[in-house]
Amino acid sequence: MVTPDVCMCRPIRGRPASDHGSAGLIPLIGGLGVAAATVVAGALVAGSLVHSRAEAAADMVALAAAGRILTDPDPCGVAARVADDNDVVLSRCDVAGVSVTVTVAADLPPVLRPAAGGRQAHASARAELVPDPDVISPP
């Protein structure tokens, strides 16, 4: 009678006669792959959210500044206050006639900074004051 812990098999081309337990590595490697993919996907989603927040804040900052072009001597000051209220930094503000172009920066999470090559996500927006047709009649 053969005991269960002794294998009477011959090795096949240099492989050991017993390879019990090697199948347990397959789920382990698969689990590590799923965990790595989850971390990468989470980082991409976080970066996308920060960039979307920066774009929305840039739109809001530009609209706020454009809305004050005729009434405030410093529309870029208004833009800076609105940017600060939205947790972004106003990097640039240009006023040309009734048009305002702004660039804002939002801080990236520390885990994304090495992959993104910087500490901030940048977004630009342009807004223009459009006359109200009810207030200004055409010539």
Q: Could you characterize the architecture of this molecule?
A:
The chain is an alpha+beta fold and 139 residues long. The chain has a domain of 95 residues. The chain has a three-stranded antiparallel sheet with strand order 1-2-3, with helices on one face. β1 and β2 form a beta hairpin. 21% of the residues are buried. The mean pLDDT is 82.
Stretches with pLDDT under 50, minimum 5 residues: none
Shape: rod-shaped
The percent range for strand residues is 15-25%
The overall pLDDT average reads 82
Rg, Å, rounded: 30 Å
Structural class: alpha+beta
Tally of extended strands?
A: 3
User: H/E series, N to C?
Assistant: HHEEHE
Helical amount? 40-55%
Number of helical stretches of at least 4 residues: 3
Order the strands across the largest sheet as they lie in space: 1-2-3
Quote the distance from N terminus to C terminus.
111 Å
Biggest sheet descriptor: 3 strands, antiparallel
